[in-house]
Amino acid sequence: MRSPWLISSIIMALTLLFALPVAADSPTNKETLLESDFATLIDLARQAYEAEDYEAAVEGLVMANRRDPNPRLLLNIARSHDRNGDCRTSLAYLEAFLRHPAAEESLVESTEESLQEGIDQCSAYSEDMGGRLSLETEPLLASVSINGAHVGTTPTEIAGLAPGSHTLRFELEGYADHVEEIEVVAHQDQTVGVVLQEPDDSDDQILDPIAQPGSQEDSDPELNYIALGLIGGGAALAITGAVFDLVLIPQTDEQRSALDQQTQAEEFAELSQKRKTQANLALAGYIGGGLLIVGGASWLIYEMMTTEDDGKIAAGWSITPDANSNGFGFTLLGRF
Predict the structure, then answer these.
(1) How many domains does the chain divide into?
(2) N or C: which end of the chain has fewer CB within 10 A?
């Protein structure tokens, strides 16, 4: 893919006329390019191109286009890639020029001819390959890899990716790595901008085990629902007993007092039996309810007093045999 590149060469020559002279030993690393003005970038690119360092020429032209966008620079980048033996990327930049809304009409026809001739000669070209992908970060100079392959440091560009999903990774010392998936669409240009975040070191801090709060499971003991149920059932029985004692029995007594024991002996006997039954139910409610309440409450108190607190038993009970001259028995001890 060598002809017809005449128009691209002419454009490069015209563009480089605006360059300012720089010292021959000027460094061309990325930091220097970021600090250079447009004219200096063009001159650095010209020097690299004449020295057949086409990768450096592309780097300078990309940075120049970033500083002062101009579709003509895309043709110069395409020329540099072609001289470097990368016809696929070269053709991607020709397509990028033709897509550019500011592409000069006087250059469109000749570029289309160059593109068609290049497609016929470049076996690596694909009609559905992606366009130009621009990669930016804040801060700059982050290392970039696509699908695990290093492609440069930001700001940078890559062209001609296959359509579909690709994994981008940005790495910069002092900042957390940033990974994201992008979807490349055929013949479309896109820019990916990323703000790198400082790493979160909170997970690396060593916490004092004494000051470290316990888990919810440790700090909040489980409720004894059986003991609480016993207390609730006992309360219900006690209330039932109170209803019989304070409401139903007085009603029955009032009904009995209104009867004549001589003439209404049968009804009086029925009410007496009814009152006896009510009294028995009231007594059973009081006794049963009291026992359940005492049992449930005792269970809860026992658990509370024997629960470990920071590895120590706060309180507890113990039963020990006791024998003396008066006989044999057991001693119940409690610790509070």
Answers:
(1) 3
(2) C
Contact present, 184 and 162 (Cβ < 8 Å): yes
- Does a structural domain hold residue 213? no
Rg (CA), the chain: 47
Based on the fold, state whether residues 64 and 166 are members of the same structural domain.
Answer: no
Write the CATH number for 151. 2.60.40.1120
Q: Which tokens belong to 237?
A: 């029985």
Note the pLDDT tens digit of each residue in 303-321.
777 765 544 444 455 545 5
Percent of the chain's residues with pLDDT above 90: 47
Question: In 3-state terms, what secondary structure has residue 326?
Answer: coil
What is the reported pLDDT for 181? 95
pLDDT at 102: 92
Confidence grade of residue 259 (pLDDT, cut at 50, 70, 90): confident
Q: Span 196-224, mean pLDDT?
A: 61
Query: What is the token pair recorded at 262?
Result: 């001589």
Choose among 278, 283, 226: nearest CA to 248: 278
d(CA 173, CA 156): 18
> Could you give the CA distance from residue 273 to residue 277 in angstroms, rounded to a whole number?
6
pTM passes above 0.90: no
Contact at 8 Å (CB) between 206 and 228?
Answer: no
**Residue 143, exposed/middle/buried by CB under 10 A (0-12, 13-18, 19+)?**
middle
Answer yes or no: is pLDDT of 12 > 90.
no
Tokens, residue 141: 């100079």
Spatial contact of 125 and 88, defined as CB atoms under 8 Å apart? yes
Is the separation of the CB atoms in 33 and 63 below 8 Å? yes
Q: Are residues 94 and 184 in the same domain?
A: no
Cis peptide upstream of residue 213 (ω within 30 degrees of 0): no
Residue 2 has pLDDT above 50, yes or no: no
